[in-house]
Task: inverse folding
């Protein structure tokens, strides 16, 4: 896989972007996580989230001007969360007085903090906990001298004391009533490796000569690193912001200056990896319209929340997530994460040289239906990611053979002698049109192919040729671009040999395959043709009585003209119908991308969820969609069922299953050749005649064993091949390995018929005695 | 690896008319070989793979090897 493209895909997924509250906070308090704990009544954990970002939690929870509330997206559905009051509730009900712990830095430094205000103490605490020797110089007789003057009303002394206790208990040197003579900065630098200047607001002409000053006599400070012109001196706080600076900005400066000082002491880069430092606008997309409006809850104990009220207010948080794709796709939901992670996981899976490729099945379980991209604010397509990963797996020889072999064998059947066909319209030597019904309509409802072909021949001028085959979509989905391209080239050559007639496809997957070709042939959907040229006359006579919900196939997602034609055809048939959500935004039926062969559990979830969206009978215009609904017990009809009518209830028609699909294709070709072109074909020997109970047949389908596979085993055994006898039942148990799979069948010949009791297979080859 | 032979040891080889016996054989997949004991005809060597083995342990090993 292309690493550059992978990084581009990852960057487009916004789910890991910070929520608006955290992004707008200068020190990124994770209010979303904090509120999630609060909503569950976990006050201590909520406090820990808060205290991780805020080293003076009691004080800041009182003083912060909460920019998070202005950014909160709850405002679009009610009122913003009262995050400020909730922070106070965290402190009130969750505070833990754990002493400041220190880490062991690789290089321990001596740091002087000049000024014991919010900024200075924040830096002091951060550097102390990183393991440095910290000395705090304060000219006044107390820590946080300015805050002490705010008064009990604004900031009770007990609140200040709550935060200062652990500073006093630490091993930090607190040198109060000590003025640092900044005119003698060299003296200070002799004793310390780094200095953080946070002496408060005001010009500092005394620093002239030591540091570069601006026109207001303040040190020039780099806004990212808080570095001054001297490599060991950093500065911030109200020295930078003035008296208007909010307390949270002082926290911000102290926090990030400490980060720079630590990096300087470790000899690390001051500027690396500092994106999104400070407040910024998040790119996280949140659809707020899906949440009903909810007003903020008022404080219930004076101007504060009691524990219960805080819990209720926190529960108003959505919380903010994108997850637009995960919400609509059972496959993306199944693996428990979101595209950014999946993309990384898939790329890592692709890059492994030795060891288990743990994500192979995940890569091959995507339906490639493109719904994720259609609903994503940045059009991130897991289909593109998974398809490229599959192609890479094939290129490296790492595609598990069992994943797509059955589907590719089915495709080969459709390309082979048993089904493939090319003919001009009977009695014609030229074709202005070429009808390509595709492999699945022919497999599901061969009589509809006969009927619609007859109608096209009767309606269109200039001759309608017929081409039977497969468009090769299974090969593309399996990552086999070689097979896909070779097949299309073959079809293109056949089309060219008929003097490039206009192609008409009954299947939107085929339509897309032809349209995606370089120098694509003129191709059109059967449904737009029928809308323009007219329906068969008998169709309108017996409109079925039902109000159908329309399921558009995923491969017609972009084909709005086709979608519109289908709806107008239904109107013309007098059939009531309604939408299943927006036409281009439906989920796959579960067949797309060959997911059902690799991960039947996920594919069934997909079709079941789609089936549950509406109690009405579904109308499909892809044979595979219709059959998949039928397979899962959802009543569904194909558009051609309505056009041609049916004696029995067409919504009750069972999924033919894979064995019958191949038989139907073969029979269709035989009948067409015999009835339209008067060509006799040798009938294929379907011997022995099998008798299979419904439950055994379903079990064989589930195990991807075709009846023809069973016949091969029985023929082999009955022609003298090795076989076993179960003396209890008298049944024969035999095996045959035509290629890469060994099939086992238990059977008995009864009245000339072969009764099949069970079948199973394995890919391992049994060898000789070692 | 010891394998539960299921009903394998009750089965008769149709050609040799002999009951199967447990015997060491090698199973192979994707270039890897594993020694196992399976019910086998003592005369012609036809070897039975019980369904539980094919759809259980054997399938697991196949899938693990495919993901290598």
Result:
């Amino acid at each position: 896989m292309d690493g550059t493209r992978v990084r581009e895909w990852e960057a487009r997924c916004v789910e890991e972007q910070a929520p608006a509250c955290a992004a707008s906070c200068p020190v990124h308090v994770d209010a979303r996580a904090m509120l999630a704990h609060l909503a569950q009544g976990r006050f201590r954990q909520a406090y820990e989230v808060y205290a991780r970002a805020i080293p003076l939690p009691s004080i800041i929870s009182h003083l912060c001007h909460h920019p998070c509330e202005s950014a909160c997206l709850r405002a679009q559905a009610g009122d913003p969360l009262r995050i400020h009051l909730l922070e106070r509730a965290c402190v009130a009900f969750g505070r833990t007085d754990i002493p400041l712990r220190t880490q062991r830095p690789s290089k321990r430094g001596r740091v002087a903090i000049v000024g014991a205000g919010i900024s200075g103490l924040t830096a002091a605490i951060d550097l102390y906990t990183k393991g440095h020797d910290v000395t705090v110089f304060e000219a006044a007789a107390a820590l946080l001298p300015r805050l002490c003057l705010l008064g009990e009303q604004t900031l009770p002394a007990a609140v200040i004391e709550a935060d200062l206790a652990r500073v006093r208990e630490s091993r930090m040197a607190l040198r109060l009533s000590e003025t640092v003579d900044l005119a003698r900065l060299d003296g200070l630098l002799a004793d310390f490796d780094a200095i953080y200047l946070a002496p408060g607001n005001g010009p500092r002409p005394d620093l002239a000569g030591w540091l570069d000053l601006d026109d207001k006599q303040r040190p020039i400070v780099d806004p990212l690193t808080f570095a001054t012109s001297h490599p060991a001196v950093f500065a911030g706080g109200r020295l930078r912001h003035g008296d208007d600076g909010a307390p949270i900005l002082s926290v911000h400066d102290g926090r990030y200056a400490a980060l720079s000082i630590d990096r300087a002491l470790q000899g690390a880069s001051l500027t690396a990896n500092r994106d999104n430092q400070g407040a910024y606008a998040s790119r996280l997309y949140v659809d707020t319209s899906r949440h009903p409006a909810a007003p903020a809850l008022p404080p219930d104990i004076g101007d504060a929340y009691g524990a219960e009220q805080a819990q209720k207010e926190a529960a108003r948080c959505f919380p903010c997530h994108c997850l637009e794709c995960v919400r609509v796709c059972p496959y993306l939901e199944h693996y428990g994460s979101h595209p950014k992670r999946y993309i990384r996981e898939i790329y890592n899976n692709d890059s492994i040289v030795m060891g288990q490729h743990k994500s192979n099945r995940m890569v091959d379980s995507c339906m490639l239906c493109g719904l994720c991209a259609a609903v994503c604010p940045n059009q991130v397509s897991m289909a593109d990611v998974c398809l490229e990963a599959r192609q890479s797996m094939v290129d490296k020889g790492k595609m598990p053979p069992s994943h797509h072999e059955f589907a590719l064998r089915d495709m080969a059947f459709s390309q082979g002698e048993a089904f493939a066909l090319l003919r001009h319209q009977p009695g014609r030597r030229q074709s202005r049109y070429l009808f390509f019904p595709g492999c699945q309509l022919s497999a599901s409802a061969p009589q509809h192919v006969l009927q619609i072909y007859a109608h096209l021949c009767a309606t269109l001028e200039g001759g309608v040729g017929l081409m039977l085959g497969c468009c090769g979509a299974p090969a593309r989905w399996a990552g086999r671009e070689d097979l896909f391209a070779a097949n299309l080239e073959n079809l293109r050559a056949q089309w060219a040999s008929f003097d490039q007639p206009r192609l008409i496809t009954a299947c939107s997957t085929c339509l897309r395959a032809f349209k995606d070709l370089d120098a694509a042939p003129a191709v059109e959907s059967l449904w737009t043709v029928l809308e323009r040229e007219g329906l068969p006359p008998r169709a309108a006579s017996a409109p079925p009585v039902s109000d159908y919900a329309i399921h558009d196939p995923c491969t017609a997602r972009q084909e709005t003209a086709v979608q519109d034609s289908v709806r107008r055809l239904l109107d013309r048939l007098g059939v009531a119908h309604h939408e299943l959500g927006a036409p281009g935004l439906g989920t796959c039926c579960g067949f797309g991308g060959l997911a059902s062969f690799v991960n039947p559990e996920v594919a069934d979830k997909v079709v079941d969820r789609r089936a549950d969206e509406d109690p009405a009978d579904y109308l499909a215009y892809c044979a595979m969609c219709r059959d998949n609904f039928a397979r899962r017990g959802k009543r569904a009809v194909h558009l051609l069922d309505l056009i041609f009518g049916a004696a029995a209830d067409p919504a009750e028609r069972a999924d033919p299953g894979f064995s019958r699909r191949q038989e139907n294709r073969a029979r269709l070709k035989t009948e067409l050749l015999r009835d339209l072109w008067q060509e006799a074909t040798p009938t294929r020997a379907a011997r022995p005649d099998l008798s299979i109970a419904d439950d055994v047949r379903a079990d064989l389908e589930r195990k991807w064993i075709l009846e023809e596979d069973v016949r091969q085993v029985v023929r082999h055994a009955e022609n003298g091949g090795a076989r076993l006898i179960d003396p209890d039942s008298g049944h024969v148990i035999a095996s045959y390995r035509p290629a890469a799979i060994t099939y086992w069948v238990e059977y008995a010949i009864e009245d000339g018929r072969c009764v099949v009791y069970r079948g199973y297979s394995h890919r391992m080859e049994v060898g000789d005695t070692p | 690896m010891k394998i539960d032979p299921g009903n394998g040891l009750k089965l008769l080889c149709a050609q040799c008319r002999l009951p199967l016996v447990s015997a060491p054989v090698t199973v192979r997949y994707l270039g890897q070989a594993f020694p196992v004991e399976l019910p086998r005809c003592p005369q012609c060597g036809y070897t039975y793979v019980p369904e539980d083995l094919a759809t259980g342990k054997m399938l697991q090993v196949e899938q693990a090897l495919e993901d290598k």
Q: What stands out?
A: The longest strand of chain A covers residues 753-762. The mean pLDDT of chain A is 94. The CA atoms of residues 327 and 333 of chain A lie 7 Å apart. Residues 690-762 of chain A form one domain.
